[in-house]
Amino acid sequence: MAKLLIDKVLNNNVLIAKHPSYEEVVLIGKGIGFNRKQGNFIETDTVEKLFVLKNEKEQESYIKLLPFIDNDFLEVIISAIDLIKQRTNSQLNEHIHVALTDHLMFAITRASQGMEMSNPFLVETKALYRHEYEVAAEVVRYIREKTGINLPDGEIGFIALHIHSAITNKNLSDVNRHSQLISRLVEMVEEQLDIEIDKESIDYMRLVRHLRFAIERVQKGERVEEPEKIASLLKEEYPVCYNLSWKLIKVMQQTLRLTVYDAEAVYLTMHLQRLQKKIK
Hints:
By secondary structure, the protein is an alpha+beta fold. The chain contains eleven helices and five strands. The protein has a five-stranded antiparallel sheet.
């Protein structure tokens, strides 16, 4: 990788440097600013765990955050993001440096003052993004180990959404919107079928995953094949589940403002019927 000329040392962990392709970049890494001065060169391949912020807007936002963060906390957050990168084995969207640093800074402050923020979508998040949730739990353990601050379980869910957003390059507001939509759809299923789904059960996991993939297909405009004649059969055999699946699809359409293909109702009906039969 390139040799970069250091323009400014912001603190022990953050430098501004000249990059051959991106002009100015912000370099983030634990201890990379230690004993370095303006005019020095930094070889990016000699520094492990180095992140480069190329996007100008992200650079500005990150630099604005710095005065508010204790340097030791910043080191912990940088290491936490590196842990996420290793565990997910992916190139994270650089927005995570701003979004997650900002989030963790407030979370750590709240926790140290004994304040807790509730997370109404914790159960959905755990079922939807199992791997991200496990990595987030590890991040919370790491923060406890390094700072002695115990972040509540709700934070695992919030961090998992940040991780999912960074891996998939999805906007965090979209990720949140989808979690809320799924939560609403599950409530409708329980209400209409007059059942209570155990949130730790495999049935719940399957339902949530089915809804998630349906939403993702709708977003991508992917069409699923409709099995011939099966719709009218299901309508006759399982009218309650068939009608419910259409109600769910209407809510999906209104929320996403996109077309949902009819075949989704067929697959959803079969899923709901199986769920109802199993629980009742």
